[in-house]
Specification:
5 helices
Amino acid sequence: MTLGDEIRRRYPRLIRAIRLAGLLTETEAVGALVDYKVFGIREGFGSEAVAHMGGPLAAIRWGVRSRRWLGRKRAGLPRNTNT
């Protein structure tokens, strides 16, 4: 089992959130997670689309924010997380 397969199995919702937040393909979203896990916080890794988002860490942050917002939207809660 490759690292990409392990990440696909372990983080399917995060991958979907990254894809939706950055309009990325599944391969690019998984690649951002793999790059972050292997190389840590470094610039210059990943696809061009991930680089436009600010790098792998920024793509992951966008995905986490998007995942939280989608969860609140499904629950019928307001978008503002302070309430």
